[in-house]
Amino acid sequence: MTNQKNVAIKVAVSNSSLFTRAAKKLRGSVITISKKKPLQNLDNNGGSRINGWVDSMRASSPSHIKSSAHSEDLNSWIVHHPSALDMFEEITNASKGKQIVMFLDYDGTLSPIVDDPDRAFMSDAMRATVRKLARYFPTAIVSGRCRDKVYSFVRLAELYYAGSHGMDIKGPSKGSKHKKKWSELAQQVRTVLKEYPKLRLTQGRKVLEIRPTIKWDKGKALEFLLESLGYANCTNVFPVYIGDDRTDEDAFKVIRERGQGFGILVSKMPKDTNATYSLQEPSEVIKNLGTNWSLYNLCNKDYKEKFVT
Ligand SMILES: [Mg+2]
C-alpha cells in the first residue's frame, strides 16, 4: 500500500474476468481505472459538449421524463417498487448478519439536477449524512462524471469513487499507514500485469494507466469494487445501490442477478427498472440514508459487533 494522496494507478482491462482477477491481486493498492481521455477531460471541453451532456443527463433523469402516466399507474408502480422509507423492517431482516456495502450515484441522487453541471452541489446535510454512513458501511460514489469532478463536489476522502461510469476508480485515502515507495508499487503492478498480456500499461508521473478495450458500465464498477473489497464470492455481502439514471440500471441488474442486496431507484415517475425499491428525490435519499441506515446500525447489535470497528 502506498500514500494515496500522491499516487494513482490507472487500470483498464480487456474483459471483466481478467479485470476481476487483476483486481484481486492488486487489492490494497490505490486503483484507478481509466477510460478514454475525452471522458476524463469533460471539464476542459467546450460549452456545447457540456450542454449536450446536461441535456442527456436530464433526459435520462425520471424527474424530467415526459410521461403520460396517470396517478393510477404511479400507484401500481409503487406497489412493485415500494418506497425504501417504508421498508426498514424488510431491509433489516434481509440484510441481517451480512456486510452492507453502499453504492451511491451522484447527480439526481445526492444532488439535484441543475442547469449548470458545475453547480450541482450537494448540501452540507447530505455530505454529513454520507460521512456518517461511511463510518458504518464501505461506501462508494458511482458517477458518470469524471472522478476528480465528483470528488470536488463530495469532498469525503473516506469514500470509494468510481467516475466515468466506473471506468475510473479510487479507494479511500488512508494516509501513510502502509507506506511503500512508488517504484515498489509500480513494480508490483507490472508483475501482476505480466499475467495479463491483453492489458496495455503506460506510465506517467506517479500514474500507471492500464487501458481497457471493453464495454464498461456501473454494473461492472460495482462488481469490481465488491471484488476489490474482498466480497467477490461472499455469501454474506449485501450491496445497496441508489441511483436515478438509466446508466444505474446496469448496477441494479447486477445486484438482482447476484441475488444479494437491492437497488433503489430515485424517481418520481413510474419507470421500467431492475431496482427493488424507490425514493422520489434527493431529499428522500438523505432521509433514507440518515434515518434508516443509521438506525439500522444502532438497532442491529450483531451487525455492530461483527462489522463496525
Ligand atoms: Mg444520476
UniProtKB/TrEMBL annotation:
GO terms for molecular function: trehalose-phosphatase activity. Its EC number is 3.1.3.12. One of its GO terms (biological process) is trehalose biosynthetic process. It comes from the Eukaryota. Pathway: Glycan biosynthesis; trehalose biosynthesis. It catalyses: alpha,alpha-trehalose 6-phosphate + H2O = alpha,alpha-trehalose + phosphate. Its cofactor is a divalent metal cation. Pfam families: Trehalose_PPase. Keywords: Hydrolase. Belongs to the trehalose phosphatase family. PANTHER family: TREHALOSE 6-PHOSPHATE PHOSPHATASE. Removes the phosphate from trehalose 6-phosphate to produce free trehalose. Trehalose accumulation in plant may improve abiotic stress tolerance. This is Trehalose 6-phosphate phosphatase.
